[in-house]
Amino acid sequence: MIHPLLTVQGMDIAFTERVCADIGFELHRGEWLGLVGESGSGKSLTCRGLIGLLPEGAQVTGQMTYGDRVFDLSNPQAPARLRGVEIAMIFQDPMSALDPLMTVEGHLKLRGRADGADLLRQVGLPDGENLLKSFPHQLSGGQCQRVALACALARHPKILIADEPTTALDVTVQAGILRKLRQLTDKQGMSVLFVTHDLGVVSEHCDRVMVMNAGRIVERGTAQDVLRAPKAGYTQNLLRAIPTPATRGRRLMSATPSEGEMSAASLRQPAEVALSLKHIRVTYQRPNGQRVNAVDGVSLSLRSGEILGLVGESGSGKSTVAKTAVGLVHADGGSVELAGRPVDWHRPQAEWRRAVQYIFQDPLGAMDPLSRILDQVRTPLDIHDIGQRRDRAVMAGKRLAEARLDPALHRKKPRMLSGGQRQRATIARALALSPKVLICDESVSALDVSVRAHILDLLMDLRAQTGVAILFISHDLSVIHHLCDRVAVMRGGRIVEEGDTAEVFATPQHDYTRALLAAIPKMPERDIGTLLQGESA
Amino acid sequence: MLKNALRAGAATLVILMAGGAMASDLKVAVQAVPASIDPASENSNVSLRVIYSVYDTLVKTDFRDGGKLKPALATSWTIIDAKTVEFKLRPNVKFHNGETLSADDIVATFSPVRIGLDPNIPVESKAFLGGIDHVEIVDPLTVRIHMKKNDAIILQRFANFPSQIISAAALKSSASYQDFAAKAIGTGPYKLKSFKPGDKVVLEKFEGYWGEPKAAADEVTFSVVPELSTRVAGLVSGQFDLITEVGPDDIKQIDAGKNTKVVGGPILNILGLFYDSTNDVLADPRIREALNLSIDRVKLVNSFYGGRTEVPHGWQMPSFGDMYLADRPLPEYNLQKAKALLKEAGYNGAEIVYRTRNYYTKQIETAQILQSMWKAAGLNIKLEIKENGAQVFADDDRRMIVDGSFSAYYPDPLGQFWRRFGQDTTYATGKYWKVDPDMVAMGDELATSIDTARRREIFGKMLDKFDKEPNGAVLYDLAAFMGERSDRVSLKVLPNEYLDLTTDGLSFK
Amino acid sequence: MNWILLRTGRALLTLLLLIGFSFFVLSISGDPALSHLSADVDASAIDAFRRKWGLDLPLWQQFFIYVRGLFHGDFGMSYATGRPALEQIMAGMPVTVSLMLPTIFAAIGLGLPLGAFAAMRRGSTADRLTITLSVLALAVPNFLLGLMLMYVFSVHLGWIEPSGIVDWRSYLMPVATMALPMAAIFARFTRSAMLEILSHPMLDTARAGGLQPGRIKRAHVLPNIAVPLVTITALEFGHLFTAAVVAESVFGWPGTGRLLIDSVASRDFAVVQAILLLTGTTMILANLLADIAYGAIDPRVRDQRRRRVKA
User: What are the residue boundaries of the ABC transmembrane type-1 domain, all occurrences included (chain C) (predicted)?
Assistant: First the structure.
């Protein structure tokens, strides 16, 4: 057996209470080891613990062997000597990973590399000479992450710890960076400890994988084994929560009260058009006075009971289009119609506001931090004077119950709730007015997969129960595929392709759509039977 | 032996040198310095403190000798009639600019521009000297001053502020009155060495001083230290020999110091009230009388000054000499009578506004106590505290009670009582009240008669009438206190705001 | 170029509004004639005073004449001394500046290291002590602080003369009075700016790259706290004059600050206005310098400007 490059044994991390327990693993030369788990599972802390980058107050025990050197992890200074030279690390947010006041060249020189341009070429930035003089804010997210990678690789480390390095990036960018990283590590025989919540990425790139839950490693094995035939109940649940072509139109999670109603509406023939956007054009002025078309003649129509997916990468204009439907952005051209009647958001009417509701990505930012959940759901009822004053609290409670928020939480303030619970509350608030159209703008993007699955199930159920039309905006194609009846693909302010979801995914017509689909990390085919079995268990 | 002698000699020398430099320089911390050292241009306590050392008057009021009038720049004088007085000037008196005193200087001193007759040059002197018709030169050392009207205090006018004699040459050689005022050329024991407005006035001993007593210090520096606590600190630390405007609350602390002491007392000035009787409520003299009867003045003096000042016997000062009506009682305090008067007047609790500001020592505190005293009598007083005089004295319907000082510029009712309540005053013209015709007639006689017995009789009658129909109220004598570094200097204060820095008033230790 | 013009225009307007506002507020709340003449003055002298200084004209006309004078470099005359207002201010300026300069250096020299030290030892006794002391220094009014210093060093110990400029030691108390609360502000600000930078992900990147702590501090932390520090320094410039007003009054220094107090009280308009113009201009220049400094430090600001200038 080959001697492992890195061995970790019995690592515990505690702050006031223990957050990681008995972490142990081996990392071999040239190997990609995936570390998977949801937020709070301890995967980032584990990585940081290895190189002594834990926040103050962390108590660590355990031992790490690197080559033939043994380190006591309770002393953060001990593994610190390995940083950069033997073990490097890159982080999730590429924009804030770099110093905004320092040029790219400065970052690299700080790490002893005068041959910056070469290094940049290695990480896939061919125009290295020009980039050297640039500052981080002048680069795109993908470029920043490549610069961060170049920084990490500057001293030829043997191991790279990559903590969700592509999560904040668009799929096509992610695919490019991962491909590059793979090439580099293969060439240099580098090992990678790859932290992610995206099992697709694990499936495509990792040799082995560890699954973490609540501070413990609950399952480990080769990536294909774990993803195809998970043994631990947690891994099985995790996998079930992930939308795949096989789950399209089905609920993801079990044990919900309305299982029988599942997805009935998706089969129903949609009725009248609830929302129609015609030739929407939005331009904005750059600081330099130049006018830019953010949205360039987009037409969309959404029927009652239908879920329309709007997909595209950042900057494609998908949110801008949606915002014209509720008057958050005023269109410079085109028209908005609700139930066939034109709407002028320059002269808004209460009735229109009731008809269309908008849910944002960040539920915390969308809520009043000082007001109780129930009161926030009640507020729209008060504003629109719906029902009797004394009944409104009950009505609001009912909406929250429909959004499956535990009654015990109704009187709490947003900060006391988890991300998923907060998003349920904002959905309940949006539904308080019984809207005809619900716009979900990246509403599940920030959530963990299992939480996301519950919200997706909820949206599906709500559509079935209320016949609400949903415009579902996402950059995540697998979610779109799972949830939506129809899909529109946006790029550069235009719709490049539109059609029945199944058809678009099966036979994409436009090159861009094809590129997008190709960039999705593929999960191994799973046996539906196993999953259903798990579901009924 | 020789060594010891040398050592002793050196030590003595050092002491002498140190003593020589130290002993006769006086450092005074003041709350402000005057904007101008011309007597006609400024009338303020900060100015009076300085000009007393720089100028002389024709006749000297000897405050240390019961206010007797004594020869100064005039060696003798004759009151020719009630309108005319003649002065014989002292020969060989030198001004600070080297000129010799002559009749021309008297003419210049009382020239139209200096007595407020030039409509473009604002001076303070018209109220005092506006009655001068002209100055006649009899010979180079004899002048005759003619008044427009009979003047009961014709001699006192030339023995007090602002009749300090200035140099005709200085006035003539100045491009503007402003330039002249900055020069400050007088005949006094000190001459102006340097002057930085808002900061410092430095006087130095005038070696050519004609008279006695001479300047006690070689140099006197008045430094502005606006903050009282800082002045006190400077006195305690020894930075200053004298500090001005010590508040009654600081007396104890300074007196407790080993080397510091408080000197001073009443200053021929009464803190009093004005009643605006043109408004509905105060138009009734019974209500005004009730206001006066409800004031317990002795209590005011005791609570603020611990007995260091006094309640005057009506609108007069003992310094009035022959004109002082010593047998007049203290202002009456009688709450029963006040209540009865209010009832009789049908006072219905209407609001009476008392406007004041923070200018005189304990002014606001006094107003607050007055408010409670009046409340005890059933009067409804609304206290309004303003930022400045303009706001207090603004002629509007909320001007009802205001307060102010009644300085006795002359040792005579004309210099105090009638200067405030007469028919030509800014108060009568400023529509606070209409002066009763009987009162006007008596006032005219008081101002023009030179028969002391008759004037005493009239003054008594005027005060009686005023008590029944008051346009104001006596509160108490204002007092001024200074802190003295008693291990270095000893100051004998005057009973007014002048500062005597001659050897009569100041001595070094 | 447009940017400079726009800024200059805005600055001039600000100054005009500043003096206009103060002129009218002071005019309707007090009368210069009654402030400069005694209560015993004859009414004709009041008229003469008003005539001499043009106070008999309607208010708007007085203001117009004043502003017209400004455009000819005439800042008006002081009613109190009859001398040009500017001359009077310039006489006090060296005193005030001689207080302000050491103050700002002392405040930064004391506050910055203290705040940085506290941030790097967050939660320690030294940190808590720094916070407590800075709250204390901010809570005690300048005025009281000055008197406290005076009580200790002049009255009790007798080391320093309490008022005026006697020798170099005279600077100690007024500068301390002005600088201590300001140092407290700098310390608190530096501390929070430091903490923000210290928890910034870029430092994780730097540490993970194996850079030494001293290197990280010099390369990343110091340049990044410079931006907020420039902001606070520019802001504190405004407080500097306010602090000088208090210190000059308490310690009896013949500076422009004390002159302002006297001039406001006596409604010596020309002097008040000229001081406001001077301090206003100083503030505007301080802000301009700060803006230039932002550009020098932060490339994002540079880019934003370049784009605006192109437009």
Answer: 93-290
B295 and B349 belong to one structural domain: yes
A51 and C CB contact within 8 Å: yes
Residue of C nearest to B391 (CA): C30
pLDDT digits (tens, 9 = 90+) for C51-86: 888 888 998 899 999 889 988 888 889 988 888 999
| Strands B190-196 and B200-205, sheet pairing | antiparallel
Give CATH for domain A6-246. 3.40.50.300
Fill in the amino acid letter for B417: F
Helices (H), A3-159: 43-50, 77-80, 94-97, 104-110, 116-122, 128-132, 141-153
Task: Please indicate whether, in this complex, the C-beta atoms of B238 and C158 are within 8 angstroms of each other.
Answer: yes
Q: What is the pLDDT of residues A84-116, one digit of tens each?
A: 889 999 988 888 899 999 999 999 999 888 888
Closest listed residue to residue A26, CA positions, set A226, A218, A212, A208: A208
Cα–Cα distance for residue pair A516/A155, rounded to 1 Å: 34
* 3-class DSSP state of C1: coil
Going by CATH, does the domain composed of C86-310 fall within 2.40.100.10? Answer: no
Dihedrals phi, psi of C107, to nearest 5 degrees: -65, -45
Contact pairs from chain A to chain C, CB under 8 Å: 94
If one counts every other C-beta atom within 10 angstroms of the C-beta of residue C15, the result is 18
Token digits for A231? Answer: 């043994």
DSSP-derived secondary structure letter, A55: P
Contact B241, B489 (CB under 8 A): yes
Asked if chain A contacts chain B via 3 or more Cβ pairs within 8 Å, the reply is no
Interchain proximity C29–B387, CB inside 8 Å = yes
Model pLDDT, residue C1: 54
Structure tokens belonging to residue B294: 């409800």
Closest CB to B233: pick one of C39, C48, C162: C162
CB contact under 8 A, C39 and B405: yes
Specify if B376 maps to a domain: yes
Residue A521 φ/ψ, nearest 5 degrees: -65, 130
- In this predicted structure, what is the pLDDT of residue C34? 83
Residue B476 pairs with which residues in a beta bridge?
B271
Average pLDDT over residues A239-246: 81
Across the interface, which of C38, C154, C254 has its CB nearest the CB of B198?
A: C254
**Which residues of chain C does A98 touch, with a Cβ-Cβ cutoff of 8 Å?**
202, 205
Partner residue opposite B237 with nearest CB, options C38, C41, C155: C155
Q: What is the CATH number of the domain that holds B197?
A: 3.40.190.10
Which amino acid is located at A475 in the chain?
Answer: H
DSSP state of A4: P
Nearest CA in chain C to B228: C250
Contact residues, chain C, for B391 at CB < 8 Å? 29-30
Closest to C118 (Cα-Cα) out of C135, C104, C103: C135
- Shortest distance, CA C292 to any CA of chain B (angstroms): 38
Q: Which two tokens mark A445? A: 């993007």
Task: For helices A449-466 and A419-431, give the axis angle rounded to 10 degrees.
Answer: 20
Of C34, C42, C162, the CB nearest to B239: C162
Are residues B215 and B326 located together in one domain of the fold?
A: no
Q: B43, C250: Cβ pair inside 8 Å?
A: no
In A, minimum Cα distance to C199 occurs at A55
The highest-level CATH class for domain A271-368+436-521 is: alpha beta
**Quick check: A102 and C219 CB within 8 A?**
yes
The CATH number of whichever domain residue B446 belongs to comes to: 3.10.105.10
Residues of chain B predicted below pLDDT 70: 1-23
Count CA atoms closer than 13 A to B215's CA, side-chain side: 26
Q: Name the minimum distance, in Å, from the CA of C1 to any CA of chain A.
A: 15
> With touching defined as 3+ CB pairs under 8 A, do chains B and C touch?
yes
**What's the ipTM?**
0.87
Cα angle: A140, vertex A141, A142; to 5 degrees = 90
